[in-house]
Every structure is written in structure tokens, then in C-alpha cells.
Design brief:
This protein is α+β, with helices and mostly antiparallel strands. The protein has five helices and 13 strands. 24% of the residues lie in helices and 38% in strands.
Length: 248
Amino acid sequence: MALFGLGKKPTTFGLDIGTSAVKLVELVQSKGGLALKSFATVPLPRDVIAEGTIREPQVVTDAIKECIEKAGISGTSAVISVSGREAIVKRVPLPKVTAKELGDAIQLEAEHHIPFAIDDVFLDYQVVSQSANAMSVVLVATKKVKVLEYVAAVEAAGLDAVVVDLDAFAIQNQFELSSPGGDSTDAVALIDIGASVMKTNVIHAGACIFARDVPFGGKRCSEPSTTSPRLRSRNGSARSSCPAAVRS
């Protein structure tokens, strides 16, 4: 036990549980900034995770364990993130209130902006700007069942999910750490194209102004289409159904 903050802080690592694979990365602080210490990836069979839902928890847990072994990780403190339609991000204007009053005000506002029952979500918020009479708050709600589903898979592998973030915010954290112009007043669109979901986050002056997950990913580009004769090549084999503008 660490008393009065004198104990050694636990070493954390990032664990990405995606549709097509489980990825792990551990960073350490060096003189030049953050440096990569460990990395591993383990592919997942098709439809083990579908539409953001873990359909075969044991397979995911086994992949996490394999990732830990491949990377040589000794710690148990994992940082994970979730995405999908079960997560809602809204920027909400509010009259300026005290910090003590803000919690109650957020609870009331959430009922107008969140399309889920409040008791069914984990709710969080952050004040991103304020003036003499008003404030702007980023409101985040994620269905409890989604978060607990991913946390359960992590804990079954013998780990602790010490942080659960949103994919969109994880991308923003990465950008702000790696970009020297992160405090620019220009708007920046961050896009992560995963296997089945494309995560977007538009930030301005260090704050999220728009975040959305789109159910379109790399699988749509890599899997051939056999439903349309217009997409067949001259030799009869099916071609990718991904638009040419998206293909690399």
C-alpha cells in the first residue's frame, strides 16, 4: 500500500480491443519524450466482436493473455477505450454555475441530450470554456453494459482496467502529445479508420467540438463484393467495393 502518495505509481499500458485484433503498447518516459518499450498484437477470429459487442468473451480474454505474454508485460494496470453507438459526446452550453452546482446541472441537461435512460449510462463531463455568464461543457455518456463487458474481458485475463476512455479522446491525447502545434487555434480533424468503425474527433483550441463513430471500416475496403456485376474484373474475380477515393 502506498501511503501519502509516497509509494511507487503502478505502471500502465494501453490495451486496444478492436474488431480484428487485440493490440498492446507500453510507453516509457525518456529524455527525448515518450519511447516505445513493448508492443504486441494478436488477431481475433471473424465476428468474435461484432457491432461493438463481445460475442465470445473467452476468445477475447485468451487473446489479451497472449498479448501480455508476447509483449513481456509484468504489470496489471491496463488503460482501455471503447467506441460505438453506445457512446454519446455532446457539447452543451450552460449558464455559469459554481463547481458545486455543476454536477446537478449536468444531470438535468443529460436527460435532454442523452437518448438512453440516465440510470443505464456512465456519465462524465468537462468544462472546456467559460465566460462571465456562460460555460461550455463536453458531456459524455456510455452505456454501462458496454463498459462492463469490456472491463470483464480484461479482468478475466488477470488485469485491472484502471482507465476506460473513449477511442475518440484517446486519439486526441495521442495528437496533443505528439504534435508541437497542439495548442493551435486551427480546427483539426482526427480520423482513425478501424476494421469496422471509423472514429472521428474534431478539436479546436485543445477542446473537442465534434466526435462521431461511423460504422465503416477497413473491412469494407478489403472484402470483395460479389453482389454487383459492375464490380467484377475482366477475368471474373470480384474486386473491392471500397470507393477509389478511399483505396490507397
